[in-house]
Amino acid sequence: MVGPGPPPGGDVNRAAELLSFTWILCGFSLIFTILRFTSRTFLTRNLWWDDWTAFFTMACSVTFSIIWTFYAAKGFARHDYYLGPDQLANSGELSWVSQTFCIISIATGKVSVSFLIQRIQSPNKYRTWLLWFISISVSLSAAVAVILVYTQCTPFYALWNPQLVALGQAHCANSVDINTYDIFFAGYFAFLDFLLALIPITLIWPLQMSVPKKLLISTLLGFGILAGIFGTLKTSRLRTLTELSDISWITVDLFLWNSLEINLLIIAAAIPTLRPLFLVVFKLNGSEAYRSKNKKKSGLNSTGLSGRTPINSRSYNVSAGYSEKPHSARRGQQHSDFSQNDTLRSMGSSDGGARNVSPIRPARPETAAVMPGQIKRVVDVDVDVRYLQPNGRFGEAHDMV
Predict the structure, then answer these.
(1) Distance CA 80, CA 217 (A)
(2) Residue partners of 199: CB distance under 8 A and separation at least 6
(3) Is the N or the C terminus of the chain less surrounded, counting Cβ atoms within 10 Å?
(4) CA distances from 263 to 157, 224, 258, 270, 327 (A)
(5) What pLDDT score was predicted for residue 345?
(6) Which pTM does this prediction carry?
(7) How many CA atoms, within 13 angstroms, populate the side-chain half-sphere of residue 120?
């Protein structure tokens, strides 16, 4: 209850605010998820774990949005003062169950971004270890957070029925201690959002491309920084949950912050995967590779590269994301030479290695002659893969998304 008298403003119902905000964000993230799977399923044909964890995150978002719809429909988005004991218990139950899906989706959303970065990065064991540490630590943190939620009261359903505690039929841990753990986990999750937004810069900045393009690609891959900002703001508001008065009203704010953080994370993880779809829809240069109706004629399958891929009218064995020089190639011949150490890094397949792409287009006549050893690998993350010509210009190899 809220003090001895009615709260300021009277019996205000925040149902419309909660429903409109939640479902607009959920709708946008659902659209981006559908577009992501359309691109990955029908164009690049390289669904991987980053896509499936993103799908699971989207499913959690829809689930807690439905729960909040019931919450609002039953009139729980109001001050405690106007709710009876049974209504308070029911509102608390819906609130805590929805928070479980929020915690899980925050974790799986970050795991999805981590997997996406692993797909697009060039081999770097330290960065790979860091990404695996993020995935494992955020998963364990989410598991611990959920366990703490349902073990803070004995029996657990006293969590949303405080009358049991008042009657001496249940016992709950100190709410201040539990809230401290919540703040820690929320802060850690927000920190990981910033970290995952900054890691792509270490991929892009060393590459040989213009600064504006580096900034553009880094921005697209680091869009999740917005989720970190809103996660930080949410963390700063969690302290108010230790005030057990008017919990049904305060909880609506937590719902809104969670919805914003999680759905922005889903959208941010989907944006870098949509370039093939963008090219095809607007019929831009490079869309031909994705509009081909029969990629198998090129010696490709849905699991990645196979066969021999022509580069500058010469054939190179390509598999597992690496391009090797043919045995027939002679030293001193003018041709595009990729050594085993020059990784033609793919955007991932079912094993995180090679991807399903069309044959690499031969270079234009004016850029065909390149001496062995003069080609440097330049990975344009989830945009395309290019090589640097001796004259300093870029020649397009192929869109590898």
Answers:
(1) 48
(2) 117, 127, 130, 131
(3) N
(4) 29, 10, 8, 11, 51
(5) 37
(6) 0.72
(7) 28
